[in-house]
Amino acid sequence: MALANEILKFFATYIEAETGIVYTDVNYYQLENRLVDIATQLGCATPVELYERARAQGFDPSMRLLLLDTATNNETLFFRDIPVFKALAGLMGQVATAQTNPFRIWSAACSTGQEIYSLAILATEQRVKTPGFAWSILATDFSERVLKRAEEGRYSQLEVQRGLSAARLIQHFEQVAERDGGITSWAVRAALKAHMKFKPLNLITPWPDLGTFDLILCRNVLIYQNVENKIKVIEKLFERLAPGGHLVLGGAESLIGLSNRFEFVATDGAVIYRRPATGSAAA
Description:
Blueprint: H1 5-19, H2 28-41, H3 47-57, H4 61-70, H5 82-97, E1 103-107, H6 114-129, E2 135-141, H7 144-152, E3 154-155, H8 157-161, H9 166-172, E4 173-176, E5 185-188, H10 190-193, E6 196-200, E7 213-218, H11 227-240, E8 241-249, E9 263-265, E10 271-274
Parallel strand pairs: 1-2, 1-7, 2-6, 7-8
Antiparallel strand pairs: 3-5, 4-5, 8-10, 9-10
Helix pairs in contact: 5-6
């Protein structure tokens, strides 16, 4: 039996207030499926019971964590969207030839880590071509569960097969036997993590002083936000970009109608914008 809209709206309103992620009538079915799972995990017979518990007792830490953690789609893979990483490899090559400072990268919604380790592999390969190429990566996500997974850097056989070549897998990962003697997993080698920092961060709440970056990836995040939050996040991203720095969005995202401060970078198959080196972007 379908949940009443009143119940779905109750949880959708809470999730939007906490994360900016918008659920509407169109995708309420996704929220309903997730509420069924959350109810089970918290010992509630049905989402209705979960609703009644939240109304009576509020959102306790366990319920809050599960609601916010399952609100997003954390599905990802290594080198997701090949044209994007091809463009970024070219960008790193350009930077490396005239580098004066370490190349700072921020993955603003790193999920379980495949994006950041793909970036680290590119940077490592660039350093082979240009000895001395210096770089660092900041990885953030509002979900502490997926951020912990990203920092741990351990993946199943199925996960590493999604986007990683055999050569890259062997070079940058090592097999690790599980404690119970079960299926082995693959752990990121320490050398690939050496230039990384991990920090929990919610993009719609006030940010700490992160400094500025030469490259920011904020892919498949804005698509879930309302227009007001999109504009706020984009403005803050602009301020965190160094002059001439690049912003990468998801394939279905755009700054059209949201900001005219960036320059669009024409790239096949990738959505990339640049903060002008001086002045402001044309309207």
